[in-house]
Amino acid sequence: MTTSLLSRQIEDYTERYTTPPSIVLAELNRQTNLKRGDAVMISGHIQGAFLQMIAHMVRPKQVLEIGTFTGYSAICLAQGLQDGGHLHTIEIDEELEDMAAEYITKAGLRDKITQHIGPAADIIATVPGPFDLVFIDADKQNYERYYDLVFPKLSIGGIIIADNVLYDGEVVLPIEQQSKNAQAIQGFNNKVKADKRVQHFLAPIRDGLMVVRKVSE
């Protein structure tokens, strides 16, 4: 689930004043919406532009993405890779592999991105670090687990970005009124807030992005 908590007018204005997506990303967005009933999960223009900007600022050597979907965010993140840098992206749904691969190739990033299919918790252990940038956008019940798995492999100064941390606004409801996913996200947000090893900023972009910077082991 990825929604926007902003009004449609503000969303439209934001898009007008944000660099347009590339032809490949625009086509991928369109095809995802045409072919996928769960297309709301795609990062899309605004969030994709934000991820791309962060990647250009960090200039990562190694990126890990948990949750490929159709490849939009992977393409955005890979734009900021250093020369010789690489991005590993993990997706549990094997039916998404070919579509993501098609657009990764169209974007000219085939040699810079490795796709992994399977449970993220198992695959993370097999991907060598250190990571300079990690993007978490997968099953909400396991956000805390993914955070614990990637943190030892994150370089000092490295960034973790987690999507959907406002969960359609449910996080501000009393806990008994929250869905199980919203409760899991609330637990993740509390975990990050209590972690003295990091600095963090919750950006109210679309459904909320938690930006975490590792400052100590």
Mean pLDDT metric:
95
Major beta sheet, strand line-up: 3-2-1-4-5-7-6
CATH architecture: 3-Layer(aba) Sandwich
Poorly predicted segments: none
Gross morphology? globular
CATH fold field value: Rossmann fold
The N- to C-terminal Cα distance equals 32 Å
Order of helices and strands: HHHEHEHEHEHEHEE
Residues in helices, as a percent range: 25-40%
Query: Structural class of the secondary structure composition?
Result: alpha/beta
Structural domains: how many:
1
Compute the gyration radius: what is it?
16 Å
Proportion in β-strands: 15-25%
Largest sheet: 7 strands, mixed
Number of helical elements: 8
Notable traits:
217 residues; alpha/beta; Rossmann fold; seven-stranded mixed beta sheet
